[in-house]
Specification:
By secondary structure, the protein is of the alpha+beta class. The protein contains 12 helices and 9 strands.
Length: 384
């Protein structure tokens, strides 16, 4: 059930306060130390932020997509690393269970994911299966009354802390492509699971990504998501439809933050005897950034509302992801330009955002994959 307007406003205000008072002051420290402090993570858990999208009956906040998007705007007002800490539990690490899990699977994992006691992680990508997600090679061999998983997953967010992986593996080696793929819920500590050293990244320091190797990992039959083979690819795609909308909202939030910083800096920085904000070439950059941010925000809100009404938003979630992630890249670039030399110097924090936002155009589907999804949707008979 949607929150009342009052409760939503209270939640959004609480998150905005937390971001401003607790997260913004430690952005630089987190970027440098590559670590979000444990007490901050605990505060996020206490606020229920690990379970925003998880139904209330399992201990989550049960937010609608529109409500979640409003919270994501706020979380975007600080370094994206903080959002990433709780991002998988709300998105790709829990949604497969919410959308397709059996009642037992939901009962087993969702309360822990909602409280943040369990960290969820989405294991789809492989060394040779990135954009071509239908070509996964990880195998799930039927053996006795269970399965044995073998294969390597790559760039898996939050893998080093994961309590449960949604693993996409081929149960039917004779069926190539999407149809032979099934999804499994695999507890993090099982024998045979090897977690690689966290990868060194361009940005978003404080979040961890690594390889996960499955060396003949045995799971019981009830680890099969939804108890049905061959549904893994569709499950992954539906999880990503939702995830892409959430990421789009974070992009909007980051753009709002960068715009606020740019306005403040332009108003304070003096050149030629006056604040640079008085120069029309600076004003043009600010106006372009605001307009593009507003366009993305409107798209995200409208698509979230349509998803809440039960519409298929596959194409539009991709349109949001493409536009919002490219938009925040341009806004970050203009922010560096407005700051001038200071934009390139670490102390001002703008170059950190510039590096952080680059990831938005890559993960949960590159811009080029979003273009494919949109174009296919347009060309599908009867779509428009
Ligand atoms: N919801 C439900 N079903 C979907 C779907 C969706 N959003 N998208 C595709 N499907 C279904 C199709 O309908 C098709 O089913 P049928 O065979 O029954 O018709 C099946 O899945 C295969 O779809 P398709 O033929 O479109 O698969 P492709 O191999 O061509 O791949 C893309 C499609 C490229 C869109 C997909 O591989 C993709 O999204 N890749 C990017 C993956 C990604 O985002 N990776 C990031 C890693 S996670 S951080």
């Amino acid at each position: 059930m949607p929150l009342s307007q009052e409760s939503l406003a209270e939640l959004v205000a609480a998150v905005a306060r937390f971001v401003k008072e607790r997260l913004v002051p430690i952005e630089a420290e987190v970027g440098e130390n590559d670590r979000v402090p444990d007490d901050v993570i605990q505060e996020m858990k206490n606020m229920g932020l690990f379970g925003m999208s998880i139904p209330e009956e399992f201990g989550g906040l049960g937010l609608t997509m529109e409500e979640e998007v409003h919270v994501a705007f706020e979380l975007g007002h600080t370094s994206p690393a903080f959002r990433s800490v709780l991002g998988t539990n709300n998105g790709i690490g829990s949604q497969a269970i919410i959308l397709f899990g059996t009642p037992e699977q939901k009962q087993r994992y969702l309360p822990g994911l909602a409280s943040g006691q369990i960290i969820g992680s989405f294991a789809l990508t492989e060394p040779d299966a990135g954009s071509d997600a239908g070509s996964v090679r990880t195998l799930a061999r039927r053996e006795g009354d269970g399965y044995v998983l073998s294969g390597t997953k790559r760039y898996i967010t939050n893998a080093p802390k994961a309590g449960v992986f949604s693993v996409f593996a081929r149960t039917d080696p004779n069926t190539p492509g999407a149809k032979g793929i099934s999804a499994f819920l695999v507890p993090g500590g099982l024998p045979g699971i090897e977690i690689g050293k966290p990868d060194r990244k361009m940005g978003q320091h404080g979040t961890y990504v690594s390889d996960v190797v499955f060396n003949d990992v045995r799971v019981p039959a009830n680890a099969l998501l939804g108890g049905v083979e061959g549904q893994g690819f569709k499950a992954a795609m539906q999880v990503l439809d939702r995830g892409r909308l959430h990421i789009s909202a974070v992009c909007v939030g980051v753009a709002e933050r960068l715009l606020a910083d740019s306005v403040r800096y332009a108003s304070e920085r003096q050149q030629f005897g006056k604040p640079i904000a008085e120069f029309q070439l600076i004003q043009a950059m600010l106006a372009d950034s605001y307009t593009e941010m507003l366009a993305a925000k409107s798209m995200v809100l409208e698509t979230a509302r349509r998803r809440d009404r039960g519409d298929d938003v596959n194409m539009d979630a991709s349109a949001c992801k493409m536009f919002a992630s490219e938009m925040v890249g341009r806004v970050a670039d203009r922010a560096v330009q407005i700051y001038g030399g200071a934009g390139y110097i670490a102390d001002y924090g703008i170059e950190r955002f510039y590096r952080d936002v680059r990831l938005f155009r890559l993960y949960e589907g590159t811009t080029q994959i979003q273009q494919i999804v949109i174009a296919r949707g347009l060309l599908r008979p009867g779509t428009r």
